[in-house]
Amino acid sequence: MQLRTLIPVTVAAGAAALGYAVVIERNWFALRRFEIPVLPPGTGPLRVLHVSDVHLTPGRSRLMSWIRSLDDLDPHLVVNTGDSIAHPEAVRLFLDSLGPLLDRPGVFVFGSNDLYGPRPVNPAWYLWGPSSHRYERRDPDLPWEKLRDGMAAAGWLDLNNQRGQLTAGGLDVAVAGVHDSHIGRDRYAQVAGRADPGADLRVGVMHSPEPRLLDQFAADGYDLLLAGHTHGGQLCLPWYGTLVTNCGLDRERARGLHRHPADGQAWLHVSAGLGTSPTAPARFACRPEASLLSLVPRDSG
Ligand SMILES: [Fe+2]
Q1: I want to staple 288 with a disulfide (CB 3.0 to 4.6 A). Which of 72, 259, 274, 297 is the partner?
Q2: pLDDT higher for 122 or 23?
Q3: 136: which DSSP letter?
Q4: Distance from the CA of 47 to the center of ligand 1, in angstroms?
Q5: Measuring CA to CA, how many Å separate 179 from each of 65, 162, 185?
Q6: Taking a C-beta distance cutoff of 8 angstroms, is the pair 183, 112 a contact?
Q7: Which residue spans within the chain are E strands per DSSP?
Q8: Adjacent-strand bridge partners of 227
Q9: What is the Cα Rg of the chain in Å?
Q10: Residue 298 falls in which region: left (phi positive, over 0), alpha (psi -120 to 50) or beta
Q11: Ligand 1 mean position to 53 CA, how many Å?
Q12: What's the pLDDT tens digit per position in 176-194?
């Protein structure tokens, strides 16, 4: 192909891919389903709905109604791993999106974007390392207290550097979480210690799946570790996958269900999340997602 032909073909293909990423895939929500053998024999199943990284802004009515429809899955427990909002007016919209899900048992932690509004950045920076290295410390400018109070008023447990206990699906669940390590707000020491061995299930919750935190939760006996933050890479290459995780986690576990450590006992589920930063409103080869985790008994053998 001659250069004068190749250039317009390349430009057209790039424009088509960008249009697809911004208009189609960003609104092509997927429900992922996983079965995890993590409960005591004779119990369960326990349905856990994992939502993350909604990054809600006004005008995203399609995303809001999709989240609301997740209540039809009849989850026993809802886990929100943060980055829920991306606009000062989004708290009420996010709570409205959750709607009937707020009547169910739930827990949450925050991500950096629940505190700090989006700023224009060069997307290429993400290829050079975690964005936490570029964070300027300043006072939060989003109404994270209202977000916290809204979820807490519904009875959801605030797990930002806190432990808790709840009953879901008739099972006793020990939970613990940390605030976002991406901006240095995690305080594992405040939740450290052996997870309740008498509980039916022990769940560790965090926004960013930083390996040192995963190691600590696993060492303390948490069975199931839930995180978001990576967006699954957000812009992925077909047949290659995630380019970056924006944290210390390896690319191979940027989304989905894995073990932690890779040869260990704990289960790690990383959600690729439902949204994008408003400054980079595109997803490619990495559909926005929520996950329904069906927890079933461990193999007794
Ligand atoms: Fe996010």
Answers
A1: 274
A2: 23
A3: P
A4: 24
A5: 28, 9, 5
A6: yes
A7: 30-39, 46-51, 77-80, 106-108, 157-158, 162-168, 171-177, 201-205, 224-227, 256-260, 266-270, 289-297
A8: 270
A9: 19
A10: beta
A11: 4
A12: 999 999 999 999 999 999 9
